[in-house]
Amino acid sequence: MKITSLTLTHLRMPLVSHFETSFGRIYDRDSILVTIRSEGLTGYGECVADRDPGYAYETSGTAWHILKDFIAPAILGQDVADPADFRRRVHHIKGHPMAKAGVEMALWDLLGKRQGKSLRELLGGQRHKVDVGVSIGLQESPETLVGTVGEYLAQGYGRIKLKIKPGRDVGDVSAVRRAFPDLKLQVDANSAYTLATAAALQPLDDLNLLLIEQPLAEDDLWDHHTLQKQFRTPLCLDESIISARHTRQALEMDACRIINIKAGRVGGLSEAVAIHDLCRERGVPVWCGGMLETGVGRASNLALASLPGFALPGDISASDRYYEQDITNERFTLNPDSTIDVPTAPGLGVTIDAAAVEHFALAEIVLKPE
Ligand code: OSB
Ligand code: MG
Fold first, then answer.
1. Domain with 262 in it: what CATH number?
2. 291 CB under 6 A from ligand 1?
3. Are residues 316 and 356 both part of a single domain?
């Protein structure tokens, strides 16, 4: 696939309701839309780096720099055979997985369009619809939280994830558990605890949670191992899992018993599939995390989550949970059985609403071969 141009569009889209985690509150979501033109076809990818380095060190600013100054020159005017070839070409660039993943997604989209195959088919996904849940940010009070959970349950979501942080953990989660005794419930701390402060989480072990996501620092596999020994509830790692190699090490260390897979965090869909395959071999359940994606990234997540090892519901909610207006013409809706259909058209299976992209664009550059 000869790469004729690469367009970067920095987007900022208002969220339907603000989203608060242990690292901060946002009212709108930044992302970079990657558009690649090649041999008469156009591929789209989403770089999920956020405005602030709260979840990960990458930001829209660092991703823009790495994409423009390092990744684009490695592919512009070149014949990039497939995503594996792309990975070899950017291997010398240390880190910056979200920047790489944005371009890799666009190449998968192109590949699918060229071969007339959906991303699900290309990745080897089997399901035509995937189980999903909703990730709820920190609310004003436990009462508001119980109310919000009730609203999502009424919409048909069958699994709820609650964000927690020190001081807003056992009280909040117990209130939800009391109100909904049979609910499939899990929590996510986004690395807000240390081994010492995580002792406060011990009562969570009696609340029948599916998992406790990323309680400790991202670079701290060993203390997760120590903490896992103190909990019957499986720990699940998100931020800590940056590659298939780290996944193997985390599992060998018993630092967690479930893996959250996000293509952006691990450098792209290829690495995400490699992590899925490794976990499947070892009988470790995985699920698809979310980054408040636009319709582009949501289509990619759905294709990924259609692989057979995705045993738990993903953080892939319907479009209307995030954005009143999206950048894809297609909107994703929730089926009554708490699933979302996997797109079937070639590539990502979505089309771009150019007017919406223009409306949300803060900056755009078109890069071409020298
Ligand atoms: O830790 O899973 C996370 C959103 C942004 C950054 C990190 C996370 C999240 C979510 C939302 O939990 C998942 C979603 O609905 O997209
Ligand atoms: Mg998480």
1. 3.20.20.120
2. yes
3. no
In terms of domains, do 173 and 224 share one? Answer: yes
pTM of full prediction above 0.90: yes
Q: Is 2 an annotated catalytic residue?
A: no
Within this chain, do residues 306 and 195 fall inside the same structural domain, yes or no? Answer: yes
Mark whether 90 and 126 lie in a shared domain: no
Give, for ligand 1, the residue of 17, 19, 21 to mutate: max count of ligand atoms closer than 8 Å to Cβ.
21
d(C-alpha 296, C-alpha 33), whole Å: 8
Q: Is 163 a catalytic residue?
A: yes
Q: Which helix (H) or strand (E) holds 7?
A: strand 5-21
Tens of each residue's pLDDT in the chain, 370 residues: 999 999 999 999 999 999 999 999 999 999 999 999 999 999 999 999 999 999 999 999 999 999 999 999 999 999 999 999 999 999 999 999 999 999 999 999 999 999 999 999 999 999 999 999 999 999 999 999 999 999 999 999 999 999 999 999 999 999 999 999 999 999 999 999 999 999 999 999 999 999 999 999 999 999 999 999 999 999 999 999 999 999 999 999 999 999 999 999 999 999 999 999 999 999 999 999 999 999 999 999 999 999 999 999 999 999 999 999 999 999 999 999 999 999 999 999 999 999 999 999 999 999 999 8
- Main-chain dihedrals φ then ψ at residue 199, nearest 5 degrees: -60, -30
From the alpha carbon of 292, which atom of ligand 1 is closest?
16
175 lies in the same domain as 41: no
The SS3 of residue 237 is strand
Q: Are residues 332 and 212 in the same domain?
A: yes
> Containing domain of residue 51, as a range?
5-116+350-367
Residue whose CB lies within 8 A of the most ligand 1 atoms, among 292, 293, 316, 317, for a mutation test: 292
The answer to whether the CB of 234 falls within 8 A of the CB of 211 is: yes
Residue 28's SS3 state is strand
**98 shares its domain with 194:** no
Domain count for the chain? 2
Q: Which atom of ligand 1 is nearest to the CA of 239?
A: 1
For residue 91, give the CATH number of its domain.
3.30.390.10
- One-letter amino acid for residue 95 of the chain: G
User: Both tokens of residue 17?
Assistant: 């309701």
| Residue length of the chain | 370
